């Protein structure tokens, strides 16, 4: 569908912080089904295709538990390729005794669960974009009950869940922020996204190329919520993949024009949204 491939800009990678890497890795490998691409004493790059990493874990020095009522990670969202994949991981999670929530968002069907540190993870599939309902520039989304009876008809008992399919991608990221006005300016004027849904005065959903959202932002932890400490469990950064050097350069120019900080080092560009969430700008 092209929402997670060039020339569309998309979220290609998320890096999260955990308290104990040796505790987290069995969860991400045995429960979710990632493979390890690279590992050090304090970091692990996770993969689904054996070639690229869509998720990294990092154990900071003097790490502290996840802080409540702060900005940062609400959840990162793993997009599976087929409805049978979502059905099979439902069976797998139940068999493993893992608690999870669920929702039908009209544009997608989603599961929600937490890793051992409380980092929230969404695992979802998209409905065909031809079935998304648009009212002008806004796409209809909801938080409806998921029809498990229907979903589980797509399960394949002869080929149960073993691991993340190779075609799995990082679908989107959803962030806690301290306010919405400057946040909207940053993501729209700075990074070139479109607002595709406004959830009252508390949340925005933004995307490239008419996706339902590559980034969600909300103030559900409170307007004016502080940033967590640097060594707290939670989000380290996420990466936007641009089509080419020219589109990245334009984004850097736009960010600087609105007064956003952009740090360049060895051809790596990092920017920070108004709530301090770090974003790597990659090609």
UniProtKB/TrEMBL annotation:
Keyword Cell membrane: no
Pfam family, one: Glyoxalase
Span of domain VOC: 10-126, 169-283
Alphabetized SUPFAM superfamilies for the sequence: Glyoxalase/Bleomycin resistance protein/Dihydroxybiphenyl dioxygenase
Keyword annotations of the record: Metal-binding
Protein name as it appears in the record: VOC family protein
């Amino acid at each position: 569908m092209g929402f997670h491939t060039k020339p569309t800009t998309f979220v290609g990678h998320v890096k999260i912080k955990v308290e104990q890497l040796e505790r987290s890795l069995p969860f991400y490998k045995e429960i979710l089904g990632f493979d390890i691409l690279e590992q050090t004493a304090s970091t692990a790059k996770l993969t689904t295709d054996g070639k690229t990493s869509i998720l990294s874990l990092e154990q900071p020095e003097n790490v502290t538990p996840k802080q409540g009522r702060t900005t940062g990670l609400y959840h990162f969202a793993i997009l599976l390729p087929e409805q049978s994949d979502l059905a099979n991981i439902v069976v797998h999670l139940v068999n493993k005794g893992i608690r999870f929530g669920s929702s039908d968002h009209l544009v997608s069907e989603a599961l929600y669960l937490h890793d051992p540190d409380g980092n929230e993870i969404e695992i979802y599939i998209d409905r065909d974009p031809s079935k998304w309902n648009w009212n002008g520039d806004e796409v209809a989304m909801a938080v409806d009950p998921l029809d498990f009876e229907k979903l589980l008809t797509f399960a394949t008992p002869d080929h149960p869940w073993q691991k993340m399919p190779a075609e799995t991608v990082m679908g989107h990221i959803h962030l806690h922020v301290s306010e919405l006005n400057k946040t909207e300016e940053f993501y729209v004027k700075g990074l070139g996204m479109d607002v595709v849904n406004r959830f009252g005065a508390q949340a925005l959903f933004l995307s490239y190329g008419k996706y339902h959202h590559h980034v969600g932002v909300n103030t559900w932890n409170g307007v004016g919520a502080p940033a967590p400490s640097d060594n707290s469990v939670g989000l380290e950064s996420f990466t936007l993949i641009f089509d080419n050097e020219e589109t990245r350069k334009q984004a850097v120019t736009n960010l600087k024009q609105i007064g956003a900080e952009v740090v360049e080092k060895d051809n790596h560009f990092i920017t920070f949204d108004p709530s301090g969430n770090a974003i790597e700008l990659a090609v």
